[in-house]
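Purpose: get a first structural picture of the assembly so the mutagenesis plan has something to point at.
Setup: two entries, given in the order below. No constraints added.
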Amino acid sequence: MSPVIELNDVSFSYGGPPVLHDITFSVEAGEFVALIGPNGGGKTTLLKLMLGLLKPSRGTVRVFGRHPKKARQHIGYVPQDIHLNLNFPISALEVVLMGMIRPRKRWIGHPENHRQIALSALGRMGVAEYAGIRIGDLSGGERQRVFIARALVTRPKLLLLDEPTASIDTKGQTDFFDLLSELNREITIVVVSHDLLAISNHVKSVACVNRALHYHRQDELSGKITEAPCPCTVEELCPVGMVTRGTVLPAVNKRKN
Amino acid sequence: MDILHYPFMQHAITAGLIASILCGIMGSLVVVNRIVFLSGGIAHASYGGIGLALFLGMPYLAGAAGFALVSAILMAIVTMKARHRADAIIGVMWAIGMATGVILTDLTPGYNVDLMSYLFGNVLTVPESDLWIMGGMGVLVTLTVIFFYNEFLALSYDQEFARIRGVPVGPLYLLMIGMLAVSIVMVIQVVGLILVIALLTIPPFIMEKRAKSLLHMMVGASLLGAFFTLTGLALSCAFNLTSGASIVLVAGIFFFLSLLTEKINDARAKRV
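Result (structure tokens, whole complex):
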């Protein structure tokens, strides 16, 4: 079976110096990958390349073995919510229904079965009671659940999330990653996140992105090889060293006790 | 109330109501898409078209609509391709359009349009033929927005997500800006440039925080616009004031009242 995501020798620039350089990277089905790295390191750009919203200046991107634009119907996307207008008059239910837009099926309104599917997706995320509430009146965590529900109604096989926990408090972040772990039983997940604590507890592998990319596979992070030095080329900026060396994990254990 | 029996008054009221609906619908899209400045640019640049029409002896509407459409499409493309430079470029087109209009008017022998009538219009002198054109455009814009409602909503709220779900974001954005340009020109013909911007922004802005949905915002903004227009018209007749400016001031007063109640509500919510 071909990998879910396959990047081959990919470089990208917005016109200036390359934001991403020579990236070769693949994600297998069932993975739960965290993309970490400094701001401006190219994490969001990488996600957008996977979605086909940006074209690589060199190299190829394949999702489910196809051009990303053709694979979009299988990708659920949860964007960074800071870019969205909180004053927008739209209810949580309508946001989810946005996931069910069918081109060539127009006119205002939605079929009843779409509403049912959207409501059950909200229910699955535990936010069904907020269906009629304006999206801007929800808390950051509730809003992220609505956005995931919107991604889920498209029945994705791959879920891409861009800093989903940026506006959630620490307790909420842990709950949120628990939820993602549960979804990961059926869906391959790639998440951009700064939240090392949650990452070290939940994800299966970590990729450090800072112009270049270094992929730390599952076994590296299992905790058994915490003595191994981080082989990342951008070590001073790569926090995986901390994760693998156990500087973060003891903190997690302490919190649990 | 006798004044309501005069045809000019009936025409004024009809024109005001159609303008309110056009502005309520398109203005809601303008406010949620944060393109108020772009709308101002279209409205001002269209003055270049009025000057050109005068100079060439063409009908006003053709000149203004053509100029507005071309500048609107250019602005839309700049906004899509280079968002961070868009406002400067729109500002330049705004100024150049206006200046072109003034110079072409200067060069037209013997005939001079009063710039004031373009800025504030005169709703009391609307001929019946313009009403039919406005009404037709009103129906067309309303039907188009109802037809593409879900997609306009998606691209206004979250353009990237809309694109991923297969919404033709580029063409629909151009369609939206095109309808905006045509609506602006229609309404300018009768009520003037300042009133267009006021009706396009004030009612939707008041509704934005209160509406439950974009549709609710459009309907509410149309009703508010109609209320402002009728109140302004009544005041202008009662005190013999310029109609356009009266309508704008009524809208402006309610704009500040709305801001004030919002602040009071926020303060109260914080205390609880």
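Chain A has nine helices and nine strands.
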